[in-house]
């Protein structure tokens, strides 16, 4: 990126704008190269400012939530990575509603809702995520997904050389298994819509009951998933909901657990968790995933598709 762009961006974003930031430090897989520009948005105003600045200057942006589903390339990201740390939450207990900034951590939201005797999202307790990342990929567990609870979102929609704020319904978001319109319909666009806030329809439930459910879900997840390791969660999507078409089953039966590329291998505990065991690079992760897809294709004739997202130059 040239000096002129750097200087223009700095004029708008100030000292918080960083250059050449290693993305590995900001994603759970702990791989990835350098972002040309990196900015942490502490609130919705700054998130809007950063997105608008990138559009105005014609440089690509990427919204990074918790980085729990993102694999940045070893070659880095040629543009502005905006880490979303917006954190406001408001509750309307009479209507069982929560209005959360998109950068709010899900665990935080669930805990705070419990203090108002509002539940519903306990099933997501052990899913590491921001609200924005969860809505983008319709995060779910135990047969529920966040899309079931979204009442509306406010989005920053890129338009010409600026962006406008628009409120959308769940119908527009078109939620499906680990996906939404935000993930599918803007795939090839240089500038994707950005979730600013979400209104979630919760349910009245006693705090002690909510805490019990959260703990129960966490215990169940711990039994089946390697939660403490460097991963991005389930790497591939299930083909469908039958156990024999789950990505984990297909990978296991195809022998993917025996594969290893550099420091990357699949978990012995759960075949659909690709783990960075020993300083794996993003390329190791990518090559291992490709090998595993090939195995499954050869044995079952099925095409696994990534649930995780690769970003940057590959
Ligand atoms: C140990 C572990 C267990 C997991 N278990 C589960 C599970 O049970 N169920 C499940 O569904 N997932 C699971 N995951 C995956 C991960 O938790 C989810 O995908 C989560 O929703 C990612 O959220 P994030 O904020 O980290 O998103 P990021 O990884 O930061 O971003 C993911 C995508 O969302 C986009 N995005 C983020 N914020 C916004 C925004 N404000 N506006 C527009 N786009 C945005 C990003 O640009 C990117 O394309 C697991 C991951 C780990 C590491």
Helix- and strand-based class?
alpha+beta
Count the E strands.
18
CATH class of the largest domain: Alpha Beta
| Bound ions, cofactors and other small molecules, one mention each | flavin-adenine dinucleotide
Q: Report mean pLDDT, rounded to a whole number.
A: 96
Can you name the CATH architecture of the largest domain? 2-Layer Sandwich
- Give the number of domains: 3
Shape: globular
Spatially, the strands of the biggest sheet line up as 6-7-13-11-12
What name does the CATH topology of the largest domain carry?
Answer: Uridine Diphospho-n-acetylenolpyruvylglucosamine Reductase, domain 3
Describe the protein in words.
The protein has 314 residues and is an alpha+beta fold. The strands form six sheets. The chain has a five-stranded antiparallel beta sheet. It has a four-stranded mixed beta sheet with strand order 1-2-5-3, covered by helices on one side. It contains nine helices and 18 strands. The two termini are 18 Å apart. Helices cover 30% and strands 26% of the residues. The relative contact order is 0.14. Helix 1 packs antiparallel against helix 2. It has three domains: 3-84, 2-Layer Sandwich (Uridine Diphospho-n-acetylenolpyruvylglucosamine Reductase, domain 2), CATH 3.30.43; 89-224, Uridine Diphospho-n-acetylenolpyruvylglucosamine Reductase, domain 3, CATH 3.30.465.10; 243-311, UDP-N-acetylenolpyruvoylglucosamine reductase, C-terminal domain (Uridine Diphospho-n-acetylenolpyruvylglucosamine Reductase, domain 1). A hairpin with a 7-residue loop joins strand 16 (264-266) and strand 17 (274-276). Flavin-adenine dinucleotide binds at residues 28, 62-70, 84, 102, 127-130, 132-134, 136-137, 139-141, 178, 182, 194-195, 225, 227, 231-233, 309.
